[in-house]
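Residues determine shape. Next comes a sample protein:
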Amino acid sequence: MPIDATLPYNPANIFARILRDEIPSKRVYEDDYAVAFHDIAPQAPTHILVIPRGAYVSWDDFSANASDAEIAGFVRAVGHVARAHGLVAPGYRLLANTGAHGGQEVPHLHVHLFGGAALGPMLAR
C-alpha cells in the first residue's frame, strides 16, 4: 500500500531494520552514506535497492534535509553500484517513488536500480 511521504520517519520500517541488521539482505555495497542490496522480488535481471543510512522518508525529505556530504555520498554510491554491476554501457533505469501517487511503499528513501535487459517504455500507455 502506498504511503504518505509527508509522514514522520518510522524507525520500524523494513529498510531501517535492514540497516540495523535485524533483517537479512544480500548486500552488494555499503559505505558511510548508503547500503545497496538485491531486491527480494526482482522486476528485472538486475534489481538492486540503494538506501541512504540516514532517516529520510522520501526523495523530497532527503533533498530538503540531508547534508551536502550525505547527498553527494548517496549519489556516488548509486553510480558505484551501477558501474560495479556492468550496467553503464548497456544502460539502466533508476526509480525513486515518492508518496502515494508515486507508489512509494516503504517510508525510507530508496532508489531501484534496474538493468540487465532492455526495459521497455517507462510507463504503460
Summary: Residues 19 and 70 are 16 Å apart (CA to CA).
